[in-house]
C-alpha cells in the first residue's frame, strides 16, 4: 500500500501527466501512420528527453511504447495496411468487416479489445509485482548471464525460417558492441587505429540508423503511395458491450499476450498466432476467420496490446530486454539514471508501481482519445509515403546530432541506415542486431563477474534459478533441433514421394485423399470396416 | 522479388549478393583479429577482452557462411546486380542527410531545415505548391518543437554570428 501511494505521488505532477498525455496521443498518431512505428518515434525522441527529469522522459516514451499499437489498428482495418507490423493479423478480419460496411463496428471492437489487453497485462503486472520482488533478488550475476543467454537463443530461434540470418545478425550486434576501448584491461578492440572508433559505437546511433534512417530511405526510394480511407460515421462505444460477448476469447488472448510478452524474444507475433489459433479452434464459426470474424479481431488486438506491459517484466526485474522496443526502453532507463534489475524492485518499488500506474492511465487516455479522434487520424494516414520519408529524415537528424553534436555519429547512423534499408529490402531480421548489442554487453559483464567465484563448470549452475535457467536453455535448444529434424524429414519424404514412379505417386495421393476424407467425416468412421 | 525451387527456401533478389558481402566482411574481420584484439596471459578466459569480439565475429562467419550455403544459386547473379542498383539509390538520400549535417553548423538549424525540406520534397517528385508549403510548415514545426520547446542540443550556426546582438542570442538559443 505504501508503494502504491508512493507511486501515485511520483506520477501526480503536472509535467509527468503532460508527458504521459503527449506520449500516449503521440504514440497513437505515430502508430496510425503506416511506415513510422514506435521504434522510429522512440529512437528520434530519445535524445530530446535527455534534458527532462527521468520520470518525465520515461513516461513520455512509455506512452509512445504502450499506445502505438492502438493507432496501428486504424489503417489495418480501414485500408488493409497495418500501421505497425504487429497489426498485420488485424487486417485479416478487420478489413473484410470494412468491406461489408462494418468499419465502425470493427474499429470500435479493436479499440475495446486493445484496451482490455492493455489493462489485463498491467493488472497482471501489479499482481505479479510482489512475486517479482521476491524472486528478483535471487538473480545474481550468473542467473542474469544465463537469462540473457536464454534471451538471445530465443530471439534467434524465434525467427522461424530465418534462424541462420538471425544468428549472423546477433553475431554482428555482439561484434558491434565490442568495438572500441575495453574498460577492464584498456585494450582496443577492432578500432583499426581510428580515434573515432575508440569510444565504441553508441547504441542510440545504431538504433536511429537501423530503424529511423533506414525507414526514411525505404520510403524515399520505393514507390509513392497515398492511401485513401472513407470517414467513419457514428459513435465508437458499442465495442465495449460487444467485447463482453467475447470475454472468453479476450481473456485467453490477454493471457497468451502476457505469457509470451514475458519471454524474451517471443513477443507479439507468437502471442497473436497462439490467440488467433485458439480463437479459431474454439469458435462455433471457424470458417468465418479471415473473412471478417469478430472473434479473430478480438484475439489479434487483445494479444498484441497485452504484450508491452508484460514485456516490461524481464526488463524491469532483470534488466533484460526481449525485443527491439524494450531494448530501446532499456537505454532510456540507463540514460535517465534508472538501472533496471533486481535492485530496482528491492529499493525503488514505488518507482516500479508508478510505471505500472502510468501504463494503466495511458490505456484509458488512449481509448478516450480514439473514441473522438478517429476521423481526424484518418487524414494523417493519408500522408504520401515519400513526403513522410522526407520528414523522418529531417527528424532523424535531430535524434542523432543532438546526442553529441557529432558529424561522425551522423555518418555512422547514415551507414547503419543504408544497412537497415538493405536488410528491410531483403526481409532479413534487424532486431537481433540490437539485442546482440544489448544482451552481448550484459553477458560480457555478468560472465566476467560470475566466473570470479566459479572453480568447476558445475559451480556455475549450483543455485536453483541458475540450474532452472540452464535446463530451460537445454530444452529450448533440444526443441529447436528436434523441430528442424522433423521438418528436414518431412521435406525428404516429400522429395522421395516426388521422385517415385507415377503409379506409386498416384497410390500415395489416393491414400492421402482417403485419409483426409475420413478425417472430414469424423474419427469414429475411421474405425468402421 | 522472391522465387522458390523445389523444397529449397525462397531467396529474395539481392540476398545472395548481400550474403557474399557479409561473409567476406566477417572473414576480413576474422583475419584481422590477431592485430585487433589481445589475449592476455594469466587472465581467465572469461575475462579476456578478445572473447566476446571473437564470439561475435565467429557467429558472423559461422551463421553467415551456413546461410550463404543454403541460399547459393549460380544462375541469379544478373538479377542480384539489378537489386544492388536500388541499394545505391539509397546512398543519394544518405548523401542529402550528410549534407544537412555539415551545413547546419554553418547556416543554422532553422534556415537549413527550411531549405532542405522543400528541396528534398521537390527532388522526390512532388511539384504542387501545396506539398512544397506543407514541407516548409513541417520543417518549421520540427524546429520549433525540438529546438525552441524541447531545447535539444543543436549549437548555433556560424552565420548567426553576423546578426545583431539580441537577435543573435535569440537565434542561437531557440532556432
Description:
- The complex is a heterodimer of chains A (529) and B (175).
- With 529 residues, chain A is mainly α.
- Chain A contains 23 helices and two strands.
- Chain A folds into two domains: 2-453, no CATH class; 454-529, no CATH class.
- Chain A has a two-stranded antiparallel sheet with strand order 1-2.
- In chain A, strand 1 and strand 2 (188-189) form a beta hairpin.
- The relative contact order of chain A is 0.16.
- The model of chain A is unreliable at 502-507 and 517-529 (pLDDT under 50).
- Chain B has two domains: 2-75; 90-174, no CATH class.
- In chain B, helix 1 packs antiparallel against helix 2 and helix 3 runs antiparallel to helix 4 (109-123).
- The two termini of chain B are 45 Å apart.
- The model of chain B is unreliable at 1-7 (pLDDT under 50).
- The chains are: A mainly alpha (529), B mainly alpha (175).
- Chains A and B meet through helix 8, strand 2, helix 10, helix 18 and helix 19 of A and helix 1, helix 2, helix 3, helix 4 and helix 5 of B.
Assembly form of the protein: heterodimer
| Spatial strand sequence of the major β-sheet of chain B | 1-2
Structural class of chain B: mainly alpha
User: From the alpha-carbon coordinates, what is the Rg of chain B to the nearest angstrom?
Assistant: 25 Å
- Describe the strand arrangement of the main beta sheet of chain A, using strand numbers: 1-2
Q: Kindly state the percentage of residues in helix of chain B.
A: 55-70%
The share of residues in extended strands of chain A comes to under 5%
The major β-sheet of chain B equals:
2 strands, antiparallel
**Radius of gyration over C-alpha positions of chain A, nearest whole angstrom:** 24 Å
Order of helices and strands of chain A: HHHHHHHHEEHHHHHHHHHHHHHHH
Any idea how many domains of chain B? Answer: 2
Distance linking N and C termini of chain B: 45 Å
List the total number of helices of chain A.
23
Strand content of chain B: 5-15%
Biggest beta sheet attributes of chain A? 2 strands, antiparallel
The computed structural class of chain A is mainly alpha
Would you identify the regions of chain B where 5 or more consecutive residues have pLDDT less than 50? Answer: 1-7
Q: What pattern of helices and strands is seen along the backbone of chain B? A: EEHHHHHH
State the total count of DSSP E strands of chain A: 2
Average pLDDT confidence of chain B is 88
Return residue spans of chain A where pLDDT drops below 50 for at least 5 consecutive residues.
502-507, 517-529
